Amino acid sequence: MSRTTDILLTALAPAVWGSTYLVTTEALPAGYPITMAALRALPAGLLLLALTRCLPPRVWLGRTLLLGSLNFALFWTLLFVAAYRLPGGVAATLGSLQAMMVILMAHGWLGTPIRAGAVAAAGTGVLGVALLLISPDAALDPIGIAAGLGGAASMAAGTVLSRKWQPPVSALSFTAWQLTAGGLILLPLALIMEPALPPLTATNLVGLTWLGLVGAAASYVIWFRGVARIEPGAVAMLGMMSPVTAVLLGWVVLGQSLSPLQGLGALIVLGSVWAGQRASRQDAVVTTARSVPRPASSA
C-alpha cells in the first residue's frame, strides 16, 4: 500500500475512538471506569488470541506487559479519571498534547529529528482542539489535569515503544498480546477498587460490544499496523481526529449545537493533521535517502 493509503487507514482508528464518549455516556452504566476498561480490553484481547493462536514468547512477556500497561491499563484509567474530573474539552485538549510528547520521545528513543514543521503542526492542533471543545467557563481540577497529562504521556510512550519494539508477528497478534496484558492488569484493579456491576441491559451489552470489537480489537489492529509503517510524529497527529469525530457525533446524533468557533477549530485541527503528515514525510524521505547504498567508486 502507498503511504497515503496507510495514513487514511490508520486515521480510521482515532475516528472510531471519537465515538467512545457518546457510547460511554449513552449506553454504559456510570461510575465503573476501571471495570468498563477491563471489559473493553480483556474480551477483545482473548478473542484476537483465539483467532491468531499466537502467544508471546518468554522474551517478549516483559515488553508486552509494559506496552499493555502504557497503551491500555494506565492510559484508559487516567483517561477516565480526567473525564470524570474535568470538562470534556479540557480533557481532550490535554490529550492532544500527546503529539508533541511523541515528537520528543521519538527523538530520544528512536533518534528521529525534531523538525520545526512537525512541532508547529502539533502546537496548532492543540489550539484547534481547544477552540473546538473548551468553553470559557471550563473548571480546572489539579488531579484531573495531572491525570490528563499522565494519560497523554502514557499513550505517547506506548506509541513510540510500539514502534521501537516490533515483534516478528502480525499486527493482529501484537494487538492481541497488548490488549490481553492490559485487560489482565485492569481486571484485579476493577475487582478491588470498584463495586460489583449491576445487571447489564441490552443497551449496555451493545455499547460494550461496540467498544470491545470495534473500538478496541479492530481499531487497535489498524493503529498498531500504522505505528509500524508511519513515522511516529505523523501517527500521533492522526490522534487529533478523535475529538473532531466526537464533536460531529454529538452534533449529528445528540443534536448538540456547533458554533462557528468550533467549526474553525475543526478546520484548524484538520489542517494541522495534514501539515503534520507533510512535515513527518520529510523524515521518511531523509531516512530512505540515507539508507540507499552509494555505488562504489572506481579504482
Kindly describe this structure.
- By secondary structure, this protein is mainly alpha-helical.
- The chain has one domain (3-285).
- It contains 13 helices and no strands.
- It is globular.
- Keywords: Membrane, Transmembrane, Transmembrane helix.
- Tally the helices: 13
How would you spell out the order of helices and strands? HHHHHHHHHHHHH
Percent range of helical residues: over 70%
Mean pLDDT: 87
**Overall 3D shape:** globular
Structural domains: how many: 1
Number of strands: 0
Largest sheet: none
User: Radius of gyration from the CA trace?
Assistant: 19 Å
Percentage beta strand: under 5%
* Low-pLDDT runs: 287-299
Gap from first CA to last CA: 41 Å
Instruction: Output the structural class.
Output: mainly alpha
Quick gist of this model?
Belongs to the EamA transporter family. This protein is mostly helical.
Keywords:
299 residues; 0% strand; globular; disordered C terminus
SSE layout:
Blueprint: H1 3-17, H2 20-27, H3 33-52, H4 61-85, H5 88-96, H6 98-110, H7 116-133, H8 142-164, H9 171-193, H10 202-229, H11 232-238, H12 241-253, H13 260-291
Helix pairs in contact: 1-10, 1-12, 2-10, 3-4, 3-9, 3-10, 4-8, 4-9, 5-7, 5-8, 6-8, 6-11, 7-13, 9-10, 11-13
